[in-house]
Amino acid sequence: MYRPQMPLWKRILMGTAMVIATIWLIFPFYWAVITSLKKPADVFKLSFIPFLQFQPTLDNWRTELTLRTREVFGGLSNSFIIAVSAAAIALVIGTLAGYGLARFRYHRWKNKDIAMWILSQRFLPPAATVIPFFLMMRKLGLVDTRLGLIIVNVTFTIPFTVMILRDAFGELPIELEESALVDGCSPFQTLIWIALPLVAPALGSAAIISFAFTWNEFLFAFILTYSRATPMTVVIAGTQDTQGVQFWYVSTRMLMAVIPPTILAMAIQRYIVRGLTLGAVKG
Amino acid sequence: MARKPADRDRSRIFFIAPAVLWLLAFTLFPLLYSLYLSLHGSRFLRVTHFVGLENYRMVLADYRFWQAFRVTLIFVAVGVTATTVLGLLLALLFNHPIRGIRVFRTLSTIPLFTAPVAIGYLCMIIFYEEGGPINNFLLTLGMNGINWISDPFWAKVAVAFADTWQWTPFAFLVLLAALQAVPDELYEAAALDTVSSWQTFVHITLPMIRPALVTVILLRTVEAFKIFDIAFSLTNGGPGLATRTLTFNVYTTGLRDQNLGEATAIAFLLVILMLSVTFVFFRIYRSQYE
């Protein structure tokens, strides 16, 4: 970075801007946290600081975690199982395709065309396939099953895993793999024993991005599940009952839904830009 | 590589096959099925007979379609502009070795990895008209509260706000990465020539980050066309049809009203709209791969 001397006023201005931007980022979550700690009577008052402005309570959390275990833990475990399985399958498919695109040359279809075709999945609005998916899943008996949602989400996250791993393999020096091939390894063995361990960070990032996108998916989950397989996103939406929206419960559920993917995402800072732009911008 | 070409020929196809087959089965097939459905009538979620373009005719004559069309375009235009401009400003502002930038960068990934449906509910709590923090704050200032959810205009503002809040960090992170990749020598040379900072921006910074900027705008546009979750959770498409996007209409027509033909026709019109955008996308974007 180019570092000209920054005058004091500029540094103060920048510090202020950063504080404002941070509050802007954090405020909604902070508000959700304190709402989840408020008694229903306190929710609609403008009070920010627990103990000073209102008496915090763990009642909402207790109700959610002890009385509504079926909904909450069911939702969390469904989300978890669906997201982990979808990420695992997308990772296997993405590793193979990423390696293929980085290391071989395809003729009937050019590598570029295959990559673009895979990428174009991300550009298709999910609404375009939601109706046929619903009918297909009904025919296959996969409505309200985790397997149904796993299939959906693998489809949505394949472009991420393929592009991230294609770039990661492409950046490896090819000599190691060539010598393994000379030594009689098959291309598949070369991938598994030589190349794969070297792209571990990219594998981790691809897995986390797939996990997070699956965890956060709502449209298909909402349409394809209604009781046994409902993931957390659908459970949040279900807090809205006949008594109107109970903000104190919504907040607890929302926080439970938000924490896993965001914590994981913080672990892959280096890959976020590259991952989210599908490799177009190297971060 | 050392292997015989014919040998590799056979094995290399297995690397690419799972991805290609998966997308054929779960993207291309549903898309074609969707096309088929849009040309047929249906009753109780069952396909009846071929009706040609009748579904499209019905959809295009329906004011609800045009309303959703307008709402979608508004969200795309506002969302893309707001996130790109805000993200660029933040990136330019924080493209300095200042304390706390690492923490800030880490924090700014949070909205990106938060479920949009959760953001909708977060914002619903904040925008709540009777006792939400914003309106309470306005009241303490002696102003009237704003009807964030029940007024057609402000409901759109609320949804666009939530969407912008989620995606501004995306623009910020990508553009910051691009800015940091600009070689220092360029700025040093400009500083030696005592060029004004505006000129430096226009003639050096902007051309250097142009590919990243294009990427941000186009990826953001693609995502904005998909808006559903936030509008569903924050305003439930309302008041009336004020925040119903095209995706929302596909859902209501297809699964609430169980009209498969018209729902898939709407979906296809959305695809055509997107295709025209992605066509531009591919033409510009392609040069950035390879």
Class from secondary-structure proportions of chain A: mainly alpha
Quaternary structure classification = heterodimer
Largest sheet composition of chain B:
2 strands, antiparallel
Mean pLDDT across all amino acids of chain B: 85
The major beta sheet of chain A can be summarized as:
2 strands, antiparallel
CATH C-level class of chain B is: Mainly Alpha
Identify the CATH class of the largest domain in chain A. Answer: Mainly Alpha
Secondary-structure blueprint of this entry?
The complex is a heterodimer of chains A (283) and B (290).
Chain A: H1 8-36, H2 59-67, H3 69-103, H4 111-123, H5 127-140, H6 146-170, H7 175-182, H8 187-198, H9 200-216, H10 219-224, H11 232-237, E1 240-241, E2 244-245, H12 247-266, H13 269-276
Antiparallel strand pairs in A: 1-2
Chain B: H1 5-38, E1 40-43, E2 46-50, H2 54-60, H3 63-93, H4 101-107, H5 109-112, H6 116-127, H7 133-140, H8 152-180, H9 184-192, H10 197-225, H11 229-234, H12 246-256, H13 260-285
Antiparallel strand pairs in B: 1-2
Helix pairs in contact in B: 1-13, 2-13, 3-8, 3-10, 6-8, 8-10, 10-13, 12-13
Explain what this protein looks like in three dimensions.
The complex is a heterodimer of chains A (283) and B (290). Chain A has 283 residues and is mainly α. Chain A is built from 13 helices and two strands, in the order αααααααααααββαα. Chain A has two domains: 50 residues, no CATH class; 215 residues, MetI-like fold (Orthogonal Bundle). Helix content of chain A is 71%, strand content 1%. Chain A has a two-stranded antiparallel ribbon with strand order 1-2. Chain A is globular, with a radius of gyration of 23 Å. A two-stranded antiparallel sheet of chain B has the order 1-2. In chain B, helix 10 packs antiparallel against helix 13. The two termini of chain B are 21 Å apart. With 290 residues, chain B is mainly alpha-helical. The interface between A and B is large, with 108 and 111 residues.
